[in-house]
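Journal club side-thread
Mid-discussion, someone asked how the predicted structure for our own chain would compare to the paper's figures. Pasting it here so we can look after the session.
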Amino acid sequence: MQNGTLLAAVDLGSNSFRLEIGRFEHGHIQRVEYLKETVRQGNGLDENRNLTQEAMERGWACLARFAERLAGFPREHVRAVATQTLREARNREEFLTRGSALLGYPIDVVSGVEEARLIYQGVAHMLPQSDERRLVVDIGGRSTEFILGQQFSANAVASYRVGSVAWSSRYFPDGAFTPQAFLAAEIAAKAVLDEALSVFQRNAWEVAYGSSGTAGAVGDILTAMGGPKGLITRAGLNALYEKLLRAQSADRVRMEGLKEDRRAVIGGGISVLRAVFDLLEIEEMQVAQGALRQGALYDLLDREQPETDLRTATVNALMQRFAVDTAHAERVAATACALFRQAAAPYSERAERKLEWAAKLHEVGCRISHSDYHRHGAYILDNTDAAGFALPELHRLGILVLGQRGKVRKLEADLSDASFALQLICLRLAVALCHARRAPDITEMQLRMEPGTFTLKIPSRWPQAFPQSAHLLQEEMVAWQKTPWELRVLAD
C-alpha cells in the first residue's frame, strides 16, 4: 500500500456508530477524521430479538450520512464491522441489505471472538512497543470482550453478552440509581463473566487496559474529578459509584466529563466495570486510545497481502484441527484456482483467494462423516470461531463447501452472482478431476464463462484416456440443469 492512501473503518456498535478515516504513512495509520453518532441500536431489540423499525431507521440514517463522507473510497479501502446487536438480531439481513446499499460498502457481522481480536489490534497499535503482558477489557453496549496479549499478538480472547446498554435497560429501566439495583446488576454481570477466571486470572497479565466507550467515559469523569489522566482506579470507581447513588437517577446526574450521550447508559456501564474490577482483582486500569475501529483499519493492511492475511493462517489451522488430507486439499485448490484464472473476466485476486480457502477446506467435515462430509463441513464453517473472518465470509465458504457435490439447483445460494457461480463450478470441477486423489493434467483444458454458460473444452483423446473423469464431467453437466447456468463440455 502506498504512503498517503486513505483508509476507513465503520464500527456499528450497540450504542454508537463510528467512522474512522486514517492515512497510511510508513507502516502506521494517522487519524484524518472521526465521526460518531449515538444510535442505541442495542435498545431497539424487541422481545423476539428483532430490531424495531425505529431502530433500523436510526441506523440507516446514520449510515447514509457516513456514506456521503466515504464517497469515492475504493471498496478494498473500507471495512464496516457490526457487533453484538446485529449478531443477536433475527432480522439482521433486512437491516444489513439496506444498510450496505446506503453505505455503499458491505457490512461484516463479526463473531465475538473476532471482535475481541480486532479490539486488541486497535489497542496494541496505539500503544508504545513493549513486552508487557496485557489484559484488554472492552465494555460495549451489549457485549464485553476480554483479551490477553503481548505486543501485537492476542493470545487469549473471549466475548460475553454483558454490556452498558443491555444492563442499563435491564437493571436501571427507569433510570433510578439505588444500592439494590447496582448490587443486582453487578451480581448478574459476575454470573456471566466468572467463567473468564480460568484464563484471565490475575497472574496472567501485568497491565490492564480499558478500551472503547465505557472505559473512556469513566476515565474522562475521574480526570475531571481530579484523578490522574487516563487512569481508572478502584478508589475512583467507588467514588463515582457514590456520586451516582447521591444523584439517585440518570437524568439528575451532573458531572464534569460526562457526555450527554453517555448519561442514559452510565449506570449499566459502571455496574459492569465494577464487576470486572472485583472479578479479575484489578486495582487500576489504563484507558486505551485504540479500539475496534483502529483494529479494523490495520486489518485492512494485512488483507492487502496474501502472505500476511490472517485468514490464510486460520484456514491452515482448521485443516490441521480437523485432520484434512493436506496434499489432496492443495491439489484440489491448485486445480480450482487454475480453472478460475482461465475463466474469470475481470480477474479478482480476492475471489481466487476465497476459492482457494474453500478448496482447502472442502473435506473439513470428513472427520465427522465420510458420506455427508460436505454438509458437516458447511456446518463447521458456519459455527466455528475463525480469526480474521467475518460471519458472512464463513457462511459463503460454507456454501461453497456444501455445494461441491449434488444438484446445484438444491443449493440455497444466489447463482445470479456470476463470481460465486464461477467459484462454485471451479471447485466442483476440481473435486471431480481430482477424484483419484492425484493431480490431473489440465494443461490442454480451457474453461470459459459467458452469460449463463460455462464451457469446458477438453482434448478429443481425453475421454478415452480418463473414462471415469469423463463420466463425472457428464454428471456435472446434469447437475447444473434447471439453474440459471448451463455447463457444456466440448471435446476438441
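Post-session note: DSSP finds 18 helices and 14 strands in the chain.
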